[in-house]
Structures are given as structure tokens and as C-alpha cells.
Amino acid sequence: MHPLKEGCYAPRNQWYVAAWSSEITRKPMERWILNEPLVFYRTERGEAVALAGRCPHRGFPLGESSLVGDDIECGYHGLTFRADGSCSRIPTQEAIPASCRLRSYPVFEDWMWVWVWAGDPGLADPSLIPNHREISLTDPAYQNAGGNYWHVPGRYMLMHDNLLDGNHVPFLHRHSFGGDDGGAIQIPKIQSGPDWVECEFNQPDIQCPPFLSQLFGYEGRVRRTYRSRFYAPSLHIFYDQTWSIGTDSAGSKLLGTILHIHAVTPATLHSTHYFQGEGQNFSLGEPSLSEAFRSSDMVKRALEEDVTAARLIEEMIQRSGGTLSEILVRADSAAVKGRRVIESLIEKERQPVAV
Amino acid sequence: MHPLKEGCYAPRNQWYVAAWSSEITRKPMERWILNEPLVFYRTERGEAVALAGRCPHRGFPLGESSLVGDDIECGYHGLTFRADGSCSRIPTQEAIPASCRLRSYPVFEDWMWVWVWAGDPGLADPSLIPNHREISLTDPAYQNAGGNYWHVPGRYMLMHDNLLDGNHVPFLHRHSFGGDDGGAIQIPKIQSGPDWVECEFNQPDIQCPPFLSQLFGYEGRVRRTYRSRFYAPSLHIFYDQTWSIGTDSAGSKLLGTILHIHAVTPATLHSTHYFQGEGQNFSLGEPSLSEAFRSSDMVKRALEEDVTAARLIEEMIQRSGGTLSEILVRADSAAVKGRRVIESLIEKERQPVAV
Amino acid sequence: MHPLKEGCYAPRNQWYVAAWSSEITRKPMERWILNEPLVFYRTERGEAVALAGRCPHRGFPLGESSLVGDDIECGYHGLTFRADGSCSRIPTQEAIPASCRLRSYPVFEDWMWVWVWAGDPGLADPSLIPNHREISLTDPAYQNAGGNYWHVPGRYMLMHDNLLDGNHVPFLHRHSFGGDDGGAIQIPKIQSGPDWVECEFNQPDIQCPPFLSQLFGYEGRVRRTYRSRFYAPSLHIFYDQTWSIGTDSAGSKLLGTILHIHAVTPATLHSTHYFQGEGQNFSLGEPSLSEAFRSSDMVKRALEEDVTAARLIEEMIQRSGGTLSEILVRADSAAVKGRRVIESLIEKERQPVAV
Question: What is the pTM of this model?
Fold first, then answer.
């Protein structure tokens, strides 16, 4: 099964999170996406540009190049390309061969990040990206913070496996988020569609954990629900909700929602870009709770545990000759759904498209 | 010829030295043996355990896991295995599939180290291990010291070649043990069987070397004999004996025996575990002569020269496309015997076993 | 096209620059040439010796060996070889098998460096090396300085591409030699033969650049000509000439010639030896202008830019699966000629030789 099946890598006609907006500047940046080198930069007006990262002339990396206005000039021989990939200059000649151009990758910037379309540019439709207002990223009721980034030395599906499987938390994150309290381990309620997987965990009646008591100014019993949605192939949004359990006629009330934001993008065959942020819809204002949480040692430590797990499994796969046999357990249902969704997106691209 | 023949790696139905006893503790340790990952730990009662080092669920390395009583709990999702490899817990489900278990490797602990059986567990018979009392390791007439360990970045047979060939000593060890004094270079007297090779060097009448004079409190002429036995496929024991040459009727007398102890175990295809110790049967007591010798700069430097030679030849093989042509000389007779013995042990495993 | 064509590496029946003379001493030095290990040393009389760098016995690298008179003694088992490659000693035996010898590589020492013949020794004719007097290296009218060396982590043809293409200078060397002043970018006048390529650039009437004014004690308009010759497969000599443009009847006069000296030798399939020096035929005497120039930060920085470009392209090729498509532009004419010359030298060796 994907991701251990040879020749079954990643769907290309898809939007992927490519970078935090702040990473793309007037200094060209190389970033590999789906095993291809891209170069990212901004025009003078501030628009993000994504072009093939390899000069078609001699293969020099355009990440080592410089900008001339909105054009990018190869650092080796000065061939210059416009933001649309067309060539504006070949030193020593007037004629520009038609083949001398860079592939241009459609980009779409929203919230704090930049999406890139990795496949046929003619099919790039920004409305295919989950609506960032609807998924709370740009909803003014939320205060969100992004900026965490890891380059993961492991194939991307290992990160999706991880994000689709809450049951690793009490074990892998024992020393960051805390260990197994019994209640955390559940088979989630799962729903899925052709390009999404939704999971829900419930803790119907627990003592409010101390850090939530502090956040909400509430002591007592609470109900927690944990709902996550994987928008294949790149984005995961988690809604972590706490409800008071009223002892009087007031009944149950939502104390607040914490948002966990994750994006996963294939870099090369065996490495991955991982983007992460946090959000909340209560106690809005400065200083930002989400920013403090996102940049906290606890969150960074926990996410590094995830990155380490992906690295260790990747190393195990490599040292075992490129593959591994696996046993699936009930707790894997969501991860397996996620793999099937990705696999079917890949498979779909192999089919002739009906016109 | 082995070890330069493709697909001819190592015999599996054999005992190998896996670790120094002190290396195996209540903290799980990953160690690759014959190109497979194993995890070693001790039960609460102190028994050494060797299990497959890769969780069958998602391939997470069990060397990154923790113990729960005598069981090992995977650091990623908490699957837990007993010391016999059977699964005692899959979080979120009661049923344990039969396939969810770890291969268990028979171990045998004796003297200062732990042996592991790398092949079919049904054939693991500890009596196949050379009797440690008979080969002087646990003989009370000896005071022995172990604990030297190197991870050698070269295929294991390069270390056996080295140990079966005393003639490298005056050259490779010129700056540690000292150079060519003529007498050291000899064709040894060789005997061998299906799984052993024995070599003997003699220096019938030499001036007692200063460091031996100091050890034995003896000045004058001596006879030295140097007898080594390779117990294929892992162990080498060297008996280094010095005899006084009597000038009166007292005649010749054994001044003492120094024991050199070496074990070699394939880690991966191109790396090796190397264990080494020293012993003596004279001047018993504290402080231990053997311990001082084993941990001396001279011994460590000399052994690092051996490890370096294996690394350099491995690099040469790799850079030469994975193979090398060799010329054999008379001094190689014991090493060639050793290669033949190992090769025949591998070959034997390919034959159908008569019932 | 070479160098991106599989199985088309380098011509062997050729002289290559192997080392600076000062690199070859009484301490054996390993250096890979055309993907083979060689060992270089000097006899007691000072003659440079090049032998196969791998002991035929066990493959130990002879670069880790020591000299006994004019012979080299393997650091592992003491097999000893004469400067002609024949074996003078196998410890423990008198008889020397005929196969026990090292391949000997013809060498030729001239100016400040040592050439090696990488192919059939019977064809090694020093007169095939460009005459060092004629190409100004040993011409007493010149004061030349060598000694720059880089081990380039890229295939050798990337360095020839670079040296045959002056148009990278204003871009790659913008921060060392200075940027594009328009005049530097030209299609050179190219001539070529079966094993050479000659290029010529001209700047017919420019203001004398400050550093040349300082060198020549001349202010005013100058003509600069830049003539380079690639003596395939290893050597490039550049004549950088400045002529005053007389305002009176005196007419035009040669102010001086600066010599740029480069040699490129394949080390392994994907790495290269790069040797570089400088010379001049004016202001002879001490301190040496050329030595100051060769060892200046500006020259070293610029050459490191070239080495970096080769490394970056090599990495791009490797990450792209071992090949790259390229677009050729007019400015590549000399580099393409250079590739064709090398390719035809390789091709010629595949033909049966007429007798």
C-alpha cells in the first residue's frame, strides 16, 4: 500500500502549501516540491512567483540567482526570465528560442501562506483550495498564528499517517504533551469523501485539565470534542473544543475552540515540508495566545517528536531495502483512509480524462 | 571468493557475540546483527532479551521504546510485546492478531558477554557455543578482562582476515606494537576442521622482551609460542605463551600465558561489531593486569589500526564498484582457510537438511 | 551530449596534469585519476613515481604506506614494490608471482607540475604534451606562479565548460572580478582542431582599467585581446594582452601579457582536480607580481565561485536522476566545441587501431 508501493508517489494536479508568506521575499529561494526544484520570489509589487528552479541552459540552480526588477537573472551566465517564465534576455544574442523558458507554477496566497499548483497549469483553479474563511483560518472570530516549519527527512505520507492518528499522542508525546490517561486512546468516528477524511474523538465528562482551566477561567467537569479534517493532499485542521457541563439549568456551554493547523507537502521522494500553526476563538487580543502556544517549547518539542518518528521510520525503510511489511490495527482506520484517498488521487491522474 | 562474492554474506544458524553483558540494561538498545535490527534489554530478573528491533505495526525502531515490567512498549503507538515476542497490548483493541508479534532471538549469556542465535530458533543449541570454561574464559586459573568495542565500517570478513593473519603485525602495528624484527614473520602451522582454524607460531629461542621480563620477573632466553583458534563464525582465542629456557637441570618452564580474546559479528552488509578483551594466568589479584592491558593506550591504538585497515579496504572496494581482485600469498593460508570455513557454513545452509 | 551521456567518461590515452611538483614528496600520496587510485612519491634521487594506488594482495591503499629507499612498502602486510611497479618483497616467501605487481603510470615533470599518462603505457609519448617553452610556461620572458588547487565535487567537463566560456564572468564573478560592463559579453572568434580549441575576445578601444593602469604605469585608451587555448584534454592557457592606443606617430604598443594557467583532470566520475596559476611578461623580478596575483583573495574567491558552480550543477544533475536537458545558446559555441573534441577523443579509443 502507498506509501510503501514503488512508483506511487503523489498526486500532481493539486494545490500544496509551498511556504509561509514571510519566507518568500525579494531574495530568490529554492524549494523542492514533488521532487522538482522550484524557485520562489516576490515581484516589486509583492506578488509571489514560483518558477522552475533550474536554468534550462546549463542547469544552474536559480535559487543562487538575483532579481532584476521582476525578472530573475541566472547567477551563472545571466539568462533572464520574467515572472511568467518567459525569457527576457540571453546575453550575446537577440533571438530567444521558444524552448528557452521556465515552467511557471500557479500560486495562491491566503492567510499566512502560499499555495502552489504542482501539475498542469491549465487545471489550476484556486477554488479547489479549501476556503480559508470557512475553515476558520481567516475568520475574524479566530486569532491564528503560523510560522512553524520543519524539513522532515522522511516521505510525506509518514506525516499524514501521524496526523491522522491521534493514538500516538500518549506514547510518542509522553514527555511533551503527557502520557496515557486512558481516555485519550479511542477509535475515532470517521467520515470520508474522495479528497477528505474527518475524525472525531469525544471525552464526554472529564475534569477540566489545568491548562484549559487557566485559559477559560473555569473549574469543573467538561466535555471535550476533538474534530479533525484532512483536506487531501496537504492540509489538516483540528478543532479542539471544550464545553462546560452545567450543574444548573444553564446547561452545557462552549468555552472555546483551539485550532491546530498543519500542512504537509512532498519535497523529494524521501523528504517533506511540514508547516504548523495554532489558533483560538476566545480571549482575542494582544498578546496573542496562539502565537505564544505555537512558539512554546512544549509545542516545538512535541512536533519534533513527530518529525523524529518520521525520520526513524524512513531510516528503517531505507535500511530494510526500501520497503517494510506492516500490520494494521483498528487504530489505523483514519490513517488507512488517508492513504486510500491519496492513492486514489494518484490513480485518477493515470486515467484518461473524459472530455 | 567470499567476502567479495555477491550474495554470499554470513551463516545464520550460528551463535554470534552480540554484546558485552554490561551493554544490555533496562534501557532498550538497538543493535543490527546480520543485517537485521534487533533490540536488546533485560527483564526485571536480569535476563537478557533479544527481539526484532522493528515494530511490526509501523516499523518504528524499538530501540526508541521503553519497558513496562518485562514487556517492551513501542514508543510510537504503544503496542507492547512480552519478552518472548508475543504481543500483550494493542491500544484501542482487545483482539491481538496472530501475526502481531516480534521475532524472538535465543540468547545465551556467559563470561562477560551475550551470544545471540541469528537463525532458526528451533536449532539454537547453547552447547554449540565453545565451552567458556574449556577455552579459559571462565577458568578460575585465569583473570580475564573484556569491554573493548568498535563498530567497524567494513564487512566482517575483513576483521577475520586480519585476526587469522599474524603477519600484518610488524607492518600495520609498527607504531603501536613495534616493527618487523624478522622473527615475527612466519608461515604458521595450520590445522582446521569444518568450523574452526588453528594456527601456531613459534619463536624457539629469543631474548625475553622487556615488557615480558617485567611481567614475569625473568631475564634471559625464552621460547614463545603463539597459538590461536578461530571458532567460526564469531570467536578468536589466542594463547600467547612464554617459556624460560633453563640453563641448568631445571629445564624449560612455562612462565605464563597471556590470552587475547576477539569476537567479530556482522552488523550490516558493510559494517561489523568487534569485541575485544585480554586475560592472563599469572600474577592473579588486584589490580588486574589484564584490565590494565586491555584498556591501555597501546592496545587501543593497535586495535584502531586494525579497524582503520578494514575501513580503508572497505572504502577501496566500494569505490572500485563493489569488488576487488586479490592476489593470495603463502602468508594468507590461515585467512583463506577461515574464508573457506565461513563459505562452507553458508553453503551448508543452502542444502536441504536431511531428516 | 558528453558530459551527460552515460558511459562516455574520459579519454585514457592522454597526458593529464596530476599534481603540483611540490605535492609529490617522499611521503606517498594517494590521488584518484580517471576513476583509478594512484599513489605518487619521489625516489631518493627526486624522480616522481606514479603507481597503482591499491595493493594487489588485499586492496590496502598504498597512500597509507611508507617508502623503503625507492620502493614502496604496503602498510598492511609489507609487500614491497619497486618504482617500476615490480614486486621486490613478499614477507614469508621467496617466490614472487608474476601477477604480483603494480601498474606503473608514465609521468613527465615540467615547469611546476607533474603530468601522468592514464592509458596504455606503450603509447606514452611526452612530445604529445604541449611544449612548455612554446606555451610560455618555461619561457624566461615570463614570470609564472602556480600552486592553486581545488578538489571539485563535480564532473570534470563542468570545469572545461566553465573555462571555455568567458561569458559567465560578469555574472558568476560579479562580486569578485566585477559585473557586466557590456563589453565583456561577446561571442569569441573560435578556431579548433582535433585536440584543441582556441578563442579570442577583443575590446578594441576602452579606457585602461585602474588595476592595469597601475601595473603598466599607463593612463589612457587601450586595446585588450583575450586569447585562450584549450589543449585537450587537460590544459588551458589564456593570454590576456593590453595594447596602448597611441595618440601620436608612436602608434600601438603591447604593454604586457598576463597569463592565466588552468588544468583540469578527472578524479572520479563525479569529481575533478583543478590546478591554477598566473604569469606575466612584464615587471619581472621580486616580489613576483604573478605570485601575488595567484594567491590574492580576489583570484581565490573567483575560482571558488567556479568550483561552487560546478558543485551546484553536479548536485542538480544527481538530484535530477543523473541527467539534465540543456538548451544551447550562441555563447556556448566554444564549450560545445570543447565537448565535441573530448567526445571524439573518447570515440577514437573505441576504434580498432590500424597497424
Answer: 0.94
